[in-house]
């Protein structure tokens, strides 16, 4: 095996974990009062004290923990019930088809869409007014940005549900669930109860890491919290970003202390979740041992599961639709269900102002995805030539950058860049994006790569082709479709990144996502509709290419279809 | 080429357990058939010869081809042609490009095209160059795989249940085609099969393999 290929796995780990480790160190030091850029080298507890003196702390901490736990439990609950009640049915396949593309819709667009849907002056109220509600003016109630973070938790739930569902589906494929269910049904178990008792343990064991990722992400997300979360006080992560943006450098020390607290909170919540797993497993075993068939629960639970999953999918789709209407709306008074006229002004404004953001988004996504793809293909090829598959420990390493809260290490990374005298620009932003793009590209490409028939390599070698020749001339062309889909996944992750672009870019790198989220405080619904939709289009385009290109290139190669 | 293919004290181990032991020479133009039920490690023997032994297996002993030892050569330098039960035609390439994949690189494009065209015509597939391999019948695919392998000018031929996927008539035809070509080129052939018909048609020596049992252990 050539040396460069031998070194690739280590290089990949470095690209993925290096920034995380450096960022954590760069956060820890200022949190302890060490900040040479501001002339502080002694270390003190002052940052910690400033954090504890902040009056909003308790509420901010509570919000982070509750929104994270509630949305993760809700998303997992809906996925579990839906799989239990409906896997293998036609309704299931229809919803699966609807949900798969939703996976790539950016968080910000999902949150904006939901806000436009459920706000007091949102589409749902408009559709029901005034004939059902009697309202001629938007009701004076707080729905979005509610102080309990319920709408924020709802936004996270509908966004993370498709992700967990897809992960669970992959796990389900390896669980032999049909035969398990046949046994359970033959023994008289109801559909939901039988699935929960016979299949769920195998599925959950496989999706545990993705569930942890959802929990860690939901607890520390910033863009969704800015759009749907409360603002006085906001979640801890939003407050960290505010402090980071403060012109007073001392505030960065407070931000660093808060970032360490955020890290501790996520670690604590993960530990709590793990304890919960143990408790659920114990209770579940006792429940199984009691032998209840639970057949009577199906007529209640199955419609409930379908309703919840359908509602979740519908709220994202309708939200996007509402964004689309607003983006072309002329005058649209309350409570009209539709605008009085259509107008192309928002899109014309976008065409005038959006060019820079589109270019930046495309460049960052293309470079980050290209680098990640090259590293991942190298790692998988090294794995193939060593005939040593990825270990469980290796899988943890891949998930690690997704488990560390972004707000915990990105501020430190930016501080380090400043200290090192590096200008924060598009280069560091690309490096930061790679940290998040790499794991998803790896997870997306890993299975199809390993499922490739290795005897093709034997045949190619017998025909005198070197391993590298086989990679380029046989394996990559045969795997073109999964490679392009992995690239689309990577691009969609990059396009959707808000915090790395904002913080590592020092606020000077403008992408579709940073610009869209920046509109949140302004309330210009037409602009939000345009930018949110453009952001969504930016992730759908790569997926469309990933599906169309192989079909075109291999249109005369039936063996590569399906 | 004087010596053909020589397997000198070959022993394949799964972990610590010996799986299969072979000591044999296949003269040029002749066929050695290795027979036995599935699971005795016949395919593993071929994987050792091609240098693609899966993880968990180990091989001992030396392999000579035409007097030259190839035991430690990388797989792509061994020049052992292999045919599997599945045709394993590259699905992204046309029939012609699949065949040309075996040709040594270089030379004018026109000559390469002619070589492919002649080789395809030789097995009754003249004019098939631009076809999608997925549209061929099972027997046609097997013949393209044979052409691709022969164009790489191998120095020996390995058959891994190569005819098992074909029905009886096609099977006899394809078998004859392969053996004829191998004999014409004086290639030593090592055939692994579980079918006695294959062994009879080959007409060469037959090695019967049995599932290895602990009681078979010989004193070293």
Protein topology:
The complex is a heterodimer of chains A (562) and B (220).
Chain A: H1 3-31, H2 46-53, H3 57-86, H4 90-102, H5 107-118, H6 123-128, H7 150-173, H8 177-186, H9 191-198, H10 200-220, H11 223-228, H12 236-244, H13 250-290, H14 298-327, H15 345-353, H16 355-386, H17 392-403, H18 406-419, H19 426-451, H20 455-462, H21 467-478, H22 480-496, H23 499-504, H24 512-518, H25 525-553
Helix pairs in contact in A: 1-13, 1-16, 1-17, 1-18, 1-19, 2-13, 3-7, 3-9, 3-10, 3-13, 3-14, 4-7, 4-14, 5-7, 5-14, 5-25, 7-10, 7-14, 8-9, 10-13, 10-17, 12-13, 13-18, 14-25, 16-19, 16-22, 17-19, 19-22, 20-21, 22-25, 24-25
Chain B: E1 5-14, E2 17-26, E3 31-35, H1 42-50, E4 57-65, E5 68-69, E6 80-84, H2 95-102, H3 109-122, H4 138-151, E7 156-160, H5 168-184, E8 189-193, H6 196-202, E9 205-208
Parallel strand pairs in B: 3-8, 3-9, 6-7, 7-8
Antiparallel strand pairs in B: 1-2, 1-4, 4-5
Helix pairs in contact in B: 2-4, 3-4, 4-5
Identify low-pLDDT runs of chain A. Answer: none
Largest sheet of chain B: 5 strands, parallel
Q: What is the averaged pLDDT score of chain A? A: 92
SSE arrangement of chain A, N to C: HHHHHHHHHHHHHHHHHHHHHHHHH
The assigned structural class of chain B equals: alpha/beta
What is the top-level CATH class of the domain at 5-79 and 154-216 in chain B?
A: Alpha Beta
Q: Quick one: CATH superfamily of the domain at 5-79 and 154-216 in chain B?
A: P-loop containing nucleotide triphosphate hydrolases
Terminal CA distance of chain A: 33 Å
Oligomer: heterodimer
CA-CA gap between termini of chain B: 33 Å
CATH top level of the largest domain in chain A? Mainly Alpha
User: How much strand of chain A?
Assistant: under 5%
CATH superfamily assignment of the largest domain in chain A? Answer: MetI-like
Q: Topology as H/E string of chain B?
A: EEEHEEEHHHEHEHE
Q: What is the 3D shape of chain B? A: globular
- Count of domain modules of chain A: 2
Biggest interface between chains = A-B, 29 and 35 residues
């Amino acid at each position: 095996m050539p040396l460069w290929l031998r070194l690739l796995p280590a290089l990949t780990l470095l690209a993925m974990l290096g920034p995380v480790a450096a960022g954590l160190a760069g956060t820890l030091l200022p949190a302890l009062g060490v900040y040479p850029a501001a002339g502080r080298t002694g270390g003190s507890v002052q940052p910690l004290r400033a954090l504890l003196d902040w009056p909003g702390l308790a509420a901010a901490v509570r919000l982070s923990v509750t929104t994270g736990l509630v949305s993760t439990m809700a998303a997992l609950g809906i996925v579990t019930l839906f799989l239990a009640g409906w896997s293998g049915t036609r309704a299931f396949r229809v919803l699966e088809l609807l949900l798969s593309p939703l996976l790539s819709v950016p968080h910000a667009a999902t949150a904006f869409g939901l806000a436009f849907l459920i706000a007091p002056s949102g589409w749902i109220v408009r559709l029901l007014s005034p004939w059902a509600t009697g309202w001629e003016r938007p009701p004076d109630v707080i729905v979005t940005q509610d102080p309990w973070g319920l709408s924020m938790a709802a936004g996270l739930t509908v966004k993370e549900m498709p992700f967990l569902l897809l992960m669970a589906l992959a796990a389900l494929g390896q669980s032999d669930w049909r035969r398990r269910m046949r046994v359970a049904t033959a023994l008289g178990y109801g559909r939901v109860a039988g699935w929960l008792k016979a299949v769920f343990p195998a599925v959950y064991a496989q999706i545990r890491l993705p569930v942890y990722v959802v929990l860690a992400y939901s607890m520390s997300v910033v863009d969704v919290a800015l759009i749907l979360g409360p603002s006085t006080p906001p979640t801890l992560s939003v407050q960290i970003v505010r402090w980071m943006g403060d012109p007073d450098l001392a505030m960065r020390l407070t931000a660093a202390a808060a970032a360490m607290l955020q890290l501790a909170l996520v670690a604590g919540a993960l530990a709590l979740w793990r304890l919960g797993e143990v408790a659920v497993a114990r209770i579940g075993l006792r429940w199984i041992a009691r032998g209840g068939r639970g057949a009577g629960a199906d007529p209640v639970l199955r419609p409930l599961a379908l309703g919840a999953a359908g509602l979740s999918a519908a709220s994202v789709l309708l939200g996007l639709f509402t964004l689309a209407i607003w983006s072309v709306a002329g005058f649209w008074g309350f409570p009209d269900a539709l605008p009085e006229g259509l107008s192309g002004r928002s899109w014309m404004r976008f065409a005038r102002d959006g060019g820079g953001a589109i270019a930046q988004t495309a460049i960052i996504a293309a470079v980050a995805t290209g680098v990640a793809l090259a590293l991942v293909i190298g790692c998988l090829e090294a794995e193939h030539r060593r005939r040593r598959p990825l270990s469980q420990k290796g899988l943890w390493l891949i998930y690690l950058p997704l488990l560390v809260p972004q707000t915990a290490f990105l501020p430190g990374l930016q501080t380090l860049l400043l200290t090192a005298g590096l200008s924060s620009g598009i280069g560091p932003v690309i490096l930061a994006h790679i940290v998040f793009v790499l794991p998803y590209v790896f997870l997306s490409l890993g299975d199809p790569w390993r499922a490739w028939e290795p005897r093709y390599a034997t045949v190619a070698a017998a025909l005198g082709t070197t391993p590298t020749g086989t990679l380029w001339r046989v394996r990559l062309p045969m795997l073109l479709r999964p490679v392009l889909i992995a690239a689309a996944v990577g691009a969609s992750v990059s396009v959707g990144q808000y915090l790395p672009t904002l913080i590592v870019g020092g606020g000077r790198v403008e992408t579709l996502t940073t610009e869209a989220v920046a509109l949140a405080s302004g309330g210009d619904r037409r602009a939000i509709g345009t930018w949110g939709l453009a952001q969504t289009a930016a992730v759908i385009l790569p997926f469309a290419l990933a599906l169309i290109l192989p079909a075109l290139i291999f249109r005369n190669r039936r063996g590569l279809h399906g | 080429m004087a010596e053909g293919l020589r397997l000198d004290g070959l022993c394949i181990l799964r972990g610590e357990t010996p799986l299969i032991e072979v000591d044999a020479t296949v003269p040029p133009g002749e066929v050695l058939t290795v027979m036995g039920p599935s699971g005795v490690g016949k395919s593993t023997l071929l994987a050792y010869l091609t240098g693609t032994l899966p993880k968990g297996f180990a091989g001992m002993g030396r392999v000579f081809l035409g007097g030259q030892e190839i035991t430690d050569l990388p797989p792509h330098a061994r020049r052992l042609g292999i045919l599997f039960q599945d045709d394993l035609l590259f699905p992204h390439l046309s029939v012609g490009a699949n065949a040309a994949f075996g040709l040594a690189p270089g030379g004018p494009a026109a000559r390469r095209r002619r070589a492919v065209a002649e080789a395809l015509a030789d097995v009754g597939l003249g004019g098939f160059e631009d076809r999608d391999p997925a549209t061929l019948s099972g027997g046609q695919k097997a013949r393209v795989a044979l052409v691709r392998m022969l164009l790489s000018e191998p120095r020996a031929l390995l058959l891994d249940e190569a005819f098992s996927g074909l029905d009886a008539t096609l099977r006899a035809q394809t078998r004859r085609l392969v053996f004829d070509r191998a004999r014409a080129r004086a290639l030593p052939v090592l055939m692994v099969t579980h079918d006695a018909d294959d062994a009879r048609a080959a007409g060469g020596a037959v090695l019967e393999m049995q599932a290895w049992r602990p009681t078979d252990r010989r004193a070293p």
